[in-house]
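Try it yourself: sequence plus flavin-adenine dinucleotide, in.
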Amino acid sequence: MATRDHLRHEMAIRLLTVSHIDQLTPSMVRVTLIGDALEDFSAPGPTDHVKVFFPDPATGELTIPELRADGLHRPTDGVIISRDYTPRQFRPAPFGAAELDIDFVLHAPDAAHGNPKDPAGGGPASAWAAAAHPGDEIAVAGPRGSHLAPRDVSEAVLIADETALPAFTRWLDLLPASTRITALLDVADEEVEPYLTSEQLKRASVEWLYREDGPGQLDEAVRSLDFAPDVYVWAAGEASSLVPVRRYLKHDAGLRPDQLDVQGYWKRGIVNRDHHEPIDPSDPD
Ligand SMILES: Cc1cc2nc3c(=O)[nH]c(=O)nc-3n(C[C@H](O)[C@H](O)[C@H](O)COP(=O)(O)OP(=O)(O)OC[C@H]3O[C@@H](n4cnc5c(N)ncnc54)[C@H](O)[C@@H]3O)c2cc1C
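Structure, out:
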């Protein structure tokens, strides 16, 4: 049985300021956030996520829900714009400013640093990250809970597209050294590769799959894997492309529910997809 312990966190909405921006690859930027509100931030699980609130592009105004004793309340004015992101790294600072990194995929073809090879269209989160500057303000809610990495599996297979690379690197940090890691990384092209450091590449057996080389490679690569009996498989990325992967792992490879976690982080053509929706409505978890 692959066990992932669960911790709950006190709900908090933190108003944060951009301190710096790093262009990691042509299509990914790291935004580092600071603020006193980070003091009690905690995200110890590899798949933890926060809700990031962005200013309304039409007015520049940042509208966030109000947190009261009885829960979250929508303000009567303003447009709330929020998306899910992975807290890539949190650096507490006993004597200075704590820092939180969030890595954004830029998928707007017309944004300043957009990825013209992925024509799916832009969105407010991607557009905000492409134009962000030190001093800009956003708000971050959560994480509400953390599922910790399993401690007791001999092998982990991790499958990720660009949006799941931040969580993938957290898996690399948080799995015990005794767990062998195999990774299938489904990315647009080789320009994404510098996202991983040489140290991170040493931790896993990584196969890069380039979407520019045509469809079907991820399914084929998954079908070619041999799984240890106690394997744990995590897959995250574009929801539709993960449907056949999940079907194979669940029904043909016969993985038990506790061995498998497949998450649609976004869905082509859908704005702000709710990741709690099943990726395959005909066969929910
Ligand atoms: C738990 C979780 C963690 C996540 N962590 C990260 C993270 O760390 N970094 C990250 O970049 N993303 C992450 N995502 C994905 C991110 O939330 C979505 O990509 C989100 O839709 C982006 O918002 P947007 O405003 O840019 O686009 P939206 O307004 O939501 O969508 C506009 C259009 O863009 C398309 N689109 C959305 N995302 C992409 C994409 N990546 N490539 C191409 N087209 C796209 C949509 O299909 C739609 O057609 C995570 C998602 C979840 C559920």
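One thing you can check immediately is this: Residues 149-266 form a domain with the Rossmann fold fold (CATH 3.40.50.80).
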